[in-house]
Amino acid sequence: MKKWLIYVLGIVTGIVLTFGVAFCIRMSNNSGIIGLELFEEPGDCMEYSQFEVFQVIDAGCALATADDSFGSIVFIIPDESQQFYDNQKIVLENNQCALRVGTYKYKTNVGFERTVPAIKIIDDAELPKLNRNKEAKNVSGKTLFDKPGECVSRNNFEVLEVLDSGDAVALEVSETMPDYVFTSDLKVLILADEGSNFYNKQIVKAPKGKCARQIGTYKYHSEVIPIIAFK
Q1: pTM for the whole thing?
Q2: Handedness of CA 116, 220, 29, 120 (dihedral sign)
Q3: How far apart are CA 147 and CA 119, in angstroms?
Q4: What share of the chain is helix, strand, coil (3-state, %, to 5)?
Q5: For 36-136, CATH number?
């Protein structure tokens, strides 16, 4: 009887330790903030010049609107010298940029789940080293990650523009009616696979059981948008 009890307790202990280690690894990857996923390497500077904080949350981080647009929301990670407060207005200096370092997922007050860019405000002096690390991966405005990142959407997309490369810039479909397609503010780049032929207004459907995962960033005019792949 004692041997059987020791055996069962050993199994239970092993399961608890496994989940504990997995939890610790996850927390180390997101700096202990639930919902935060950091890239292995920072992305590009986003084309924003000012922010207004509307909520300060875990570890002194803040949710803020960018460039006076409520549709453009970012998650700002502070450095040692920054302390945010509600309704704070942050205007970047000429030598500063909003560096994209990951994504943050949260639920809105009405219960919708939203994923927004996670950024750090840095000085230009910190950029040369980062840029050197990314040069080899940056081709024609595209920066590809070493491995797929966060799932940015499970919806379909409507092609907005087909580029000369054959890749397509598309908008996330939020709702479809018989005679009209409603889209959200989420704009992405879908890479052209061999034999694919995108066209304007095409609805690119997400395969069943897969989602649009971010695999990089693309500089589209004055914006930096996610590159996605269905995985």
Answers
A1: 0.47
A2: negative
A3: 19
A4: 20, 45, 35
A5: 2.40.50.110
